[in-house]
């Protein structure tokens, strides 16, 4: 008989694996690895994601990882900018390239007399001739100079999708801003071969996702990664006794790594970062948020607020404004929970001023 998972167990297991029940006394890079990267189109979001997970997290630790080139910010899952261990990015990027290729094909429809291969070859030449990273504006200008009659935005978007470009510091450092500058991944972290390739890379991506986010549906793995056609691979891994099958609270078919246990414990109030995939990733979101509650977090420009979990579920949002953390209740909080949220908001504001 297939084991069943209650909604509470599903919720607690996700939060436990994401280190959102108890903060851990681990290096930031280890937590980044367990979360399979942190969504980072908002360059400051990763700092708040780590603050929610790492005991006494110091933003200088992540700054050092970025400047020492141990972690990178680049387009990965779903074509979105993620903060990722550089060596993992080296093998993940080829595994996720089909997602980016689809976006490249869309931009290429705007070309009149140039091909994707010609554009990417020219970009490689430009990076090779540059003494260091190339700013986004400079890359656009150089490509536009080569092909003045082609849409410059599509030229740049094609390069960003087709080549493994890293957004280099100072963008992405704590309380720093500025326009992005790019370098090729191997130029930035040093030459090397991917640790995994082909189907085994995809399998390891599935393993890492389940270790950090499981149990999960196949649809959730596909939505998170952007890849399609993963069901046969997941089912083959289950047939090989590498994965186990479970039944979710609404009769969903869930998969998990064989031998991992479910969690079921009390959870503290947690302020979760904007775009944090514990909440933000769409499929399987029911385990942390009711659909009508989450709908109230969405904005016209697509920007994500921070999320507040009360008893493990989405109950409010937070935003940093003028040095203070402001709360917006999405549910009717009990007075004790409201006081706890206000106390946590003060603590988070103190972190933001560091």
From TrEMBL:
Superkingdom: Bacteria
InterPro entries according to UniProt: AlkZ-like
One Pfam family it belongs to: AlkZ-like
Protein name per the record: Winged helix DNA-binding domain-containing protein
Organism listed in the record: Gordonia phthalatica
């Amino acid at each position: 008989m297939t084991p069943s998972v209650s909604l509470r167990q599903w919720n607690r297991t996700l939060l436990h694996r994401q280190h959102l029940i108890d903060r851990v006394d681990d290096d930031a890079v280890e937590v980044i690895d367990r979360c399979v990267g942190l969504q980072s189109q908002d360059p400051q979001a990763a700092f708040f994601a780590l603050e929610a997970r790492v005991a006494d997290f110091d933003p200088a630790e992540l700054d050092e990882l970025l400047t020492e080139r141990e972690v990178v910010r680049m387009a990965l899952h779903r074509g979105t900018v993620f903060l990722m261990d550089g060596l993992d990015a080296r093998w993940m990027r080829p595994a996720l390239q089909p997602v980016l290729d689809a976006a490249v094909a869309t931009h290429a429809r705007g070309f009149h007399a140039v091909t994707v291969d010609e554009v990417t070859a020219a970009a490689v030449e430009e990076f090779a001739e540059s003494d260091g990273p190339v700013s986004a504006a400079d890359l656009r200008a150089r490509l536009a100079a080569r092909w003045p009659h082609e849409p410059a935005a599509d030229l740049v978007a094609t390069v960003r999708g087709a080549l493994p470009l890293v957004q280099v510091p100072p963008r992405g450092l704590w309380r720093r801003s500025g326009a992005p500058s790019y370098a090729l991944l191997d130029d930035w972290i040093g030459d090397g071969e991917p640790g995994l390739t082909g189907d085994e890379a995809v399998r390891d991506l599935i393993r890492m996702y389940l270790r950090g986010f499981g149990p999960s549906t196949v649809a959730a793995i596909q939505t998170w990664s952007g890849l399609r056609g993963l069901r046969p691979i997941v089912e083959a891994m289950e047939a090989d006794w590498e994965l186990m099958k479970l039944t979710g609270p609404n009769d969903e078919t869930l998969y998990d790594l064989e031998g991992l246990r479910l969690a079921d414990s009390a959870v503290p109030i947690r302020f979760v970062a904007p775009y944090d995939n514990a909440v933000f990733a769409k499929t399987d979101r029911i385990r942390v948020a009711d659909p009508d509650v989450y709908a109230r977090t969405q904005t016209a420009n697509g920007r994500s607020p921070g999320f507040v979990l009360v008893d493990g579920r989405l109950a409010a949002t937070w935003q940093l404004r003028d040095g203070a953390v402001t709360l917006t209740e999405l549910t009717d909080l009990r007075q004790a929970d409201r006081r706890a949220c206000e106390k946590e908001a003060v603590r988070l504001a103190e972190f933001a001023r560091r």
